[in-house]
Amino acid sequence: MSVAVIYEHTDEGEVALQAAAGTVDPSENLQILTTWSGSSAAGAHQAEHDAVHASVSAALPNNTSWHLDLVDPTEDPTGALITRIAELAPRLLVLGTRHRSALGKMILGRPQQRLLLEVDQPVLVVKPGRN
Questions:
Q1: In Å, what is the CA distance from 94 to each residue of 38, 43, 88?
Q2: Taking a C-beta distance cutoff of 8 angstroms, is the pair 122, 92 a contact?
Q3: Residue 35 pLDDT
Q4: Radius of gyration for the alpha carbons in the chain, expressed in angstroms and rounded
Q5: How far from the centroid of its chain's Cα atoms is residue 50's Cα?
Q6: What pLDDT, on a 0 to 100 scale, did the predictor assign at position 113?
Q7: Helix and strand counts by DSSP (H, E) for the chain
Q8: What's the distance, CA 22 to chain centroid?
Q9: pLDDT at 45
Q10: Which of 99, 107, 104, 97 lies closest to 14 in space, CA to CA?
Q11: What is the mean pLDDT of each run of 10 residues along the chain (131 residues)?
Q12: Is residue 42 packed enough to be buried (19+ CB in 10 Å), middle (13-18) or exposed (0-12)?
């Protein structure tokens, strides 16, 4: 079993990463999912992988077992993430969201809403504290 987290280098992504690390059992692997830009420039995929890997390494405790999965965004990045989550079948999916206006509180945002509705796994939604 594993715990999966949708990661972006944002406050929301950092909070989701920390929450996921706090829920993973020592016998489990933390699956960190993010989409890459899809750039066809030489070395772009590896450069993005290395940058995200460095950010995650700095944020997680040393004893956390994790794997970074850069998902090809295709034309539908959220759909690509949903497909990859289905393939991994984690016991829990963690994602971050941000504070919203009164109108925005009715829905999390289209990508988050799709994830909540279309994945079969339980979803933990976290948000950063207010400053």
A1: 24, 29, 14
A2: yes
A3: 87
A4: 14
A5: 16
A6: 83
A7: 4, 5
A8: 14
A9: 86
A10: 97
A11: 92 93 92 86 88 92 91 86 95 85 54 88 89 64
A12: exposed
pLDDT at 62: 84
The predicted pLDDT at position 109 comes to 62
Alpha helices, H only, the chain: 11-23, 44-59, 77-88, 110-118
Residues 6+ apart with CB under 8 A from 131: none
Cα gap 25→112, rounded to integer Å: 25
Give me 6's structure tokens.
């949708």
What is the model's pLDDT at position 99? Answer: 64
Which strands make up the sheet holding 29-35, listed edge to edge? 66-71, 29-35, 2-6, 92-96, 123-126
SS3 3: strand
CA gap 12, 15 in Å, rounded: 5
Q: Which residue has the tokens 């079969």?
A: 120
